[in-house]
Design goal:
By secondary structure, the protein is an alpha/beta fold. It has 2 domains: 136 residues, Aspartate Aminotransferase, domain 1 (Alpha-Beta Complex), CATH 3.90.1150.10; 254 residues, Aspartate Aminotransferase, domain 2 (3-Layer(aba) Sandwich), CATH 3.40.640. It is 40% helix and 17% strand. It has 14 helices and 17 strands. Strands 4-10-9-8-7-5-6 form a 7-stranded mixed β-sheet, sandwiched between helices. A 4-stranded antiparallel β-sheet has the order 13-14-17-16, covered by helices on one side. β13 and β14 form a beta hairpin. α2 packs antiparallel against α10, α4 runs parallel beside α5 and α11 packs parallel to α14. It is globular. 47% of the residues are buried.
């Protein structure tokens, strides 16, 4: 595969599902913020593990186990390089962002948050970056503070600064809003927080597939990610954490792998990263994740970002030209997704008709119900684009929207 790809037809042929039909029409997949489609190389990597390498890792001296362990740990190194972590043992395998956030809340949070402390989040957060902190606050007698957004969907940076008080111990914030596409200035946010001694977690679920992420440059204490958002399999992801912080944290779950020695009287815990990886890992999907990172690296993140920006601009132009459409969220820095409403039509009704055209969009609250409540709307239609999408597919979406308008307005 060439480092820089320009042939979109060739790229699309790498993804088997893009050739299928839905309702007897070519599939147009605009739900990439929910999950991305998988290139054949990812599918092959998973199949190859189960056909050629299937065995447990770290525990066996036999050939298959040794080979699987090497492949498994090689992916950890790939992730380290992909996000530019300083050390490979700063990468913890998890099931994805949700589990990564719960790990931090359940380990660092329970060890460090006390009654009267404050945890700061934003109005943009996905439920997975709200609920774990609510649960922790309820348990500890702490308070959850929410930073508002501006009218265009940008984070209110002045309010954020004002909300960072001596009581604020932790900040958990999204890198990119999965609902509005807002790209938060996470490096600046982290700097502001660290000046006041606040520990920072960045929810990177939506970021890795769209842009280069450098955790050392951001200087965040934790960064979470999910493979299925970056063309990899579901059920696998990870947590980046600074070495000194991870070393100070107690284990989150107990079991095999996370131990050095066990007696009925006392257990000695393993070193990083294994201290946080209890139980049999999802080896096959880890290898699929590695194949996905190889694929994205070969295509080139610069190409991906430029391609998706082009699609975002084209879709924004088309949607803006329709007087019946209201775009929700117009932050200056946006990823390649658009949330919108068509008149007063309920998003579910619109999405059902759009689906009949073979176009897959997301409708509803997008796991950001508090955000929708603050905006005073029941939900939106969300079209989220990947580099394998085309202008012609956006035209198909517009055709479907015209039909929705004819039926309901």
């Amino acid at each position: 595969m060439q480092t820089i790809a320009s042939d979109i037809d060739k790229i699309r042929s790498d993804f088997p599902i893009l050739s299928r039909k839905v309702h007897n029409k070519p599939l147009v997949y605009f739900d990439n913020a929910a999950t991305t489609q998988k290139p054949q190389v990812v599918i092959d990597a998973i199949v190859n593990y189960y056909t050629d390498l299937n065995s447990n890792v770290h525990r066996g001296v036999h050939y298959l186990s040794q080979q699987a362990t090497t492949a498994f740990e090689d992916v950890r190194t790939k992730i380290q390089k992909f996000v530019n972590a300083e050390y490979r043992h700063e990468i913890i395998y998890t099931r994805g962002c949700t589990e990564s956030i719960n790990l931090v809340a359940g380990s660092w949070g329970k060890a460090n948050i006390k009654a009267g402390d404050e945890i700061l989040i934003s109005a943009l957060e996905h439920h997975s970056n709200i609920v774990p902190w609510q649960m922790l606050c309820e348990e500890k007698g702490a308070k959850l503070i929410v930073c508002p957004i501006l009218e265009d969907g940008s984070l209110d940076m002045s309010a954020l600064s004002a909300l960072m008080t001596p009581s604020t111990k932790f900040l958990a914030i999204t890198h990119i809003s999965n609902t509005l596409g807002t790209v938060n200035p996470v490096k600046e946010i982290t700097r502001m927080a660290h000046e006041k001694g606040i520990v920072v977690l960045i929810d990177g679920a939506q970021a890795l597939s769209h842009m280069k992420v450098d955790v050392q440059d951001i200087d965040c204490d934790f960064y979470t990610f999910s493979a299925h958002k970056v063309y990899g399999p579901m059920g696998i992801g990870g947590l980046y954490g600074k070495e000194e912080i991870l070393n100070a944290m107690p284990p989150w779950q107990g079991g095999g792998e996370m131990i050095k020695n066990v007696t009925f009287e006392k257990t000695t815990y393993n070193e990083l990263p294994f201290k946080f990886e209890a139980g049999t890992p999802n080896v096959g999907d880890v290898l699929g994740f590695g194949a996905a990172l190889d694929y994205v690296t070969a295509i080139g993140l610069d190409f991906i970002a430029a391609r998706e920006h082009e699609l975002l601009e084209y879709a924004t132009e088309k949607l803006t030209a329709d007087p019946l459409i209201r775009i929700i969220g117009r932050a200056p820095e946006k990823a390649s997704l658009i949330s919108f409403m068509i008149g007063n039509i309920h998003p579910y009704d619109a999405g059902t008709i759009i689906d009949q055209f073979g176009v897959a969009v997301r409708t509803g609250t997008h796991c950001t119900q508090p955000l929708m409540d603050s905006l005073g709307i029941p939900g939106t239609i969300r079209a989220s684009f990947a580099f394998y999408n085309t202008r012609e597919e956006i035209d198909k979406l517009m055709e479907a929207i015209v039909k929705v308008e004819q039926l309901f307005l």
